[in-house]
Amino acid sequence: MKCNQSAIPDVLVFEPVVHHDERGFFKEVLRESSFNQFLSLYGQPSQSLVQENLSQSKRHVLRGLHFQSQQPQGKLVSVVHGEVFDVAVDIRPHSETYGQWVGHILSNQNHQQVWIPPGFAHGFLVLSESADVLYKCSSYYMAGDQQGILWSDPTLAIDWPLAKGQSPILSVQDVTQPLFRGE
């Protein structure tokens, strides 16, 4: 497995070794010891991934930007089927990259995974006909703790890959998220 830092150094991009043959492919999705070695190498604490979620969405669905404030979740995000533009926004007030975002194309073709540490808002836009997004979390989901930021916040200026005039498909919740209140 390879691991590289993104433009925001705490957001890591993992590239597993993929073994292809005439039958298809095989890859090791997670080996917690290797995962934690990379976190340590980049100055992050070890994580236990305690919850796994799978979402399926159709083209142009945008989910996010979501986070938990009382019990922040780190997320190891991958795409089982399809392609998404995955975004992480640093909302850690004392971070050097506070208020900055980074985006990556994740797909079942490139096999990449993105580690989004606790203290980030997360969202993604589906680029393919549909996408199945799998994410492993470092803490449990708490319904009353989920918060969000408006996907189109002008302060963040996320460059979502939408065609000119194209609007994403949003949940009622995501349409009404508040603006980012960075200093």
TrEMBL record:
Pfam families assigned to the protein according to its UniProt record, in alphabetical order: dTDP_sugar_isom
Site (Participates in a stacking interaction with the thymidine ring of dTDP-4-oxo-6-deoxyglucose) residue list: Y141
Keyword Isomerase assigned: yes
EC number: 5.1.3.13
InterPro entries registered for this protein in UniProt: RmlC-like, RmlC-like_jellyroll, RmlC_Cupin_sf
GO cellular component: cytosol
Pathway(s) the chain acts in: Carbohydrate biosynthesis; dTDP-L-rhamnose biosynthesis
Active site positions, chain numbering: H66, Y135
Keywords: Isomerase
Gene Ontology biological-process annotations: dTDP-rhamnose biosynthetic process; polysaccharide biosynthetic process
GO molecular function: dTDP-4-dehydrorhamnose 3,5-epimerase activity
CDD domains reported for this sequence: cupin_RmlC
EC supergroup of this enzyme: isomerase
Reaction(s) catalysed by this chain's protein: dTDP-4-dehydro-6-deoxy-alpha-D-glucose = dTDP-4-dehydro-beta-L-rhamnose
Keyword Isomerase included in the entry's annotation: yes
Oligomeric form and interacting partners: Homodimer.
Family (UniProt): Belongs to the dTDP-4-dehydrorhamnose 3,5-epimerase family.
Biological role stated in the UniProt entry: Catalyzes the epimerization of the C3' and C5'positions of dTDP-6-deoxy-D-xylo-4-hexulose, forming dTDP-6-deoxy-L-lyxo-4-hexulose.
PANTHER family in the record: DTDP-6-DEOXY-D-GLUCOSE-3,5 EPIMERASE, THYMIDINE DIPHOSPHO-4-KETO-RHAMNOSE 3,5-EPIMERASE
The protein's name in its UniProt record: dTDP-4-dehydrorhamnose 3,5-epimerase
Organism: Shewanella gelidii
